[in-house]
Design a protein that fits this description.
The protein has 263 residues and is of the alpha+beta class. Helix content is 17%, strand content 43%. The protein has one domain: 4-Layer Sandwich (Double-stranded beta-helix), CATH 3.60.160.
Length: 263
């Protein structure tokens, strides 16, 4: 299925929004809740799947929906279509700080890109959003965020979201070791596995996690400096506990401030 051709502009710096311009009849698909605003001429419909399941019948759609359940995502996707004559605009953004990555799938090896399951934001109609199980069982047991990955296929534009600063690396038969949460995605030609992080002492006391993602081969890799899981963990550690006492950063001044505030 040939993807719809869409124009876009990315707005902002640390809290980015992608504004997509749709010609009459063009459609963009997105995860539920990603839309920020849209022109009056755009209508939307919630459907089971990404729209590439045409001809697969009900069982094909149910199978695709079942695979999306495994990723923890909704079985439904929202389809936004320009129903009027003339160009209309719609904007999407992720729910936490970060950067938006614009991918041209037609320029990717095989027209494919593999990414973390929560990285996908939206794409032109005709893009297939599937899941990709990793080859090794150890990756599944110890990979954390990296066990079930999403696979984007097609010849149009797709947009990902990543936390913090985004770094693009080109591997030429090299090896790169990454915290599993810091991996955004990679092109075909990259082999992905989970390996032990150093010796037993380093694993227990190093603070870097027990396992690292190891990437080998030739292709493009996108990394993020602030995975949402790391951000959420820091917020939880700094949040007030039961009884009103703050865990915080362990600062004496922090406790003094609570006393002055009457806490």
């Amino acid at each position: 299925m040939q993807s719809h051709v869409i124009d876009y502009v990315i707005i902002g710096d640390d809290m980015q929004v992608v504004e997509i311009e749709l010609d009459s009849g063009e459609t963009v698909i997105a995860e539920a809740g990603a839309m920020n605003w849209m022109d009056d001429g755009i209508s939307f419909e919630t459907k089971m799947g990404d729209g590439t399941e045409v001809g697969n019948g009900l069982m094909g759609k149910l199978f695709g929906a079942g695979k999306r359940v495994l990723t923890g995502e909704s079985i439904f996707m929202t389809h936004f279509t320009n129903r009027v004559v003339g160009k209309q605009k719609i904007a999407f953004a992720a729910p936490y700080p970060g950067r938006i990555i614009a991918l041209e799938l037609a320029e990717m090896p095989g027209g494919n890109f593999t990414c973390q399951k929560d990285a996908f934001l939206c794409a032109a109609m005709g893009t297939k959003v599937d899941i990709a199980f990793t080859k090794r069982i150890g990756t599944g047991f110890f990979g954390g965020e990296g066990f079930i990955l999403q696979r984007l296929s097609g010849d149009g534009k797709a947009f990902l979201h990543a936390g913090g600063t985004v770094v693009k690396k080109e591997l030429d038969n090299e090896v790169l070791k990454v915290d599993t949460g810091c991996l955004v995605g990679f092109t075909d030609g990259i082999d992905y596995n989970i390996e032990r992080a150093g010796n037993l002492k380093s694993m227990i006391f190093g603070g870097e996690g027990l396992f690292l993602a190891t990437l080998r081969g030739r292709g493009t890799v996108y990394l993020q400096s602030l995975p949402f899981s790391r951000l959420a963990d820091r917020i939880i550690k700094s949040a007030p506990q039961v009884g009103g006492k703050r865990k915080g950063e362990g600062s004496v001044l922090g406790g003094l401030g609570d006393m002055l505030d009457g806490n």
